[in-house]
Specification:
This protein is 40% helix and 18% strand. By secondary structure, the chain is an alpha/beta fold.
């Protein structure tokens, strides 16, 4: 673990450095409080710091206060090194933000023990942070495909529509599903069906721009939110997946027909110039259309709607 030692006394600094290096730690040193504060402000700041209470420049307790005043997901573990043994001084140091203290002259065994406590706390914080990030990811992403889930999609769509109403940069929404996907599961099993879904997500993701968003609505239905489309028109991300799927050699039986039942068709509508679905097929409303859209069963096709 990377540890900062801040002490203006050379002998004390050398002894601390020797003990910690023998324990396998990477040691960084500072000779005053200002240098210690600067080291702890860096992006790669040490995870643990041993700070002498009395130093030129900033005192150790003031460094503690400044460090605790900065928001951080993984705050460093701070040990105050002091010759003050009064209870009031110890309380003042802990209230300033120190996690522990070590009295001078210190015992090497006690130093190693207290540093080990700090190491365990830092590692526990890292695991908790990792678990929090994993839970946040699981709450917003589909566990099979890795695409955003329906709940996250609803939040992002609401923000995107709000931004479009303010800036009028153009917003496109593309919805697609897989034709006769149930036949894939019934014929080849759910494992193959899952592989088809994952492959489709990979196919669509490869065409997206950095700010485009892909979400799985449920089952075999997916949606793409693409912003900033006014200058460039409807983004290629809403057309390429179906076209690439039709041209892929391993999906063709040699006579121009798709071997697999998950063949996808796509229809793109822009503004008010929406193409109509094939005769006899009617579409359910897109999000936000309300009763203006024609009711009826879902079309087995991909749709794109330019908003604004």
């Amino acid at each position: 673990m990377r540890i900062l030692i801040a002490d203006d006394d050379l002998t004390s600094r050398l002894v601390l450095t020797g003990v910690l290096k023998k324990s396998g730690h990477d040691v960084v040193t500072a000779v005053d409080g200002d240098e210690a504060w600067e080291a702890m402000r860096q992006p790669d700041a040490p995870a643990l710091a041993i700070l002498d209470w009395m130093m030129p420049g900033l005192a150790g307790v003031e460094v503690c206060r400044r460090i605790r005043g900065r928001p951080s997901d993984q705050p460093p573990y701070l040990i105050l090194l002091t010759s003050r043994g009064e209870k009031a001084d110890i309380v003042a140091g802990l209230e300033a933000g120190a996690d522990d203290y070590l009295a001078k002259p210190f015992d090497s065994g006690e130093l190693r023990a207290r540093v080990d406590v700090g190491r365990r706390v830092v590692e526990l914080q890292a695991r908790l942070l990792e678990a929090r990030d994993e839970l946040a990811h699981e709450a917003t992403h589909d566990h099979l495909t890795g695409a955003l889930n329906r709940r996250a999609f609803a939040d992002i769509l609401a923000r995107a529509i709000s931004a479009e109403r303010r800036h009028h940069d153009g917003l496109a929404l593309g919805i697609c599903d897989i034709d006769t996907f149930k036949a894939v599961n019934d014929t080849h099993g759910h494992q193959v069906g899952d592989e088809v879904l994952v492959a489709l997500v990979g196919l669509i993701t490869a065409t997206l721009r950095g700010h485009d968003v892909l979400s799985r609505l449920g089952g075999d239905e997916f949606v793409v939110i693409a912003g900033h489309t006014r200058e460039r028109g409807c983004p290629e991300a809403l057309r390429a997946p179906a076209r690439r799927g039709r041209r892929s050699p391993d999906r063709n039986d040699g006579r121009g027909r798709d071997r697999h039942p998950e063949h996808r068709r796509q229809h793109v509508a822009r503004g008010r110039d929406r193409g109509r679905p094939p005769r006899g097929r009617r579409c359910r409303p897109l999000p936000g259309q309300g009763r203006r859209a024609e009711p009826g069963p879902t079309c087995r096709r991909a749709e794109a709607e330019l908003i604004g």
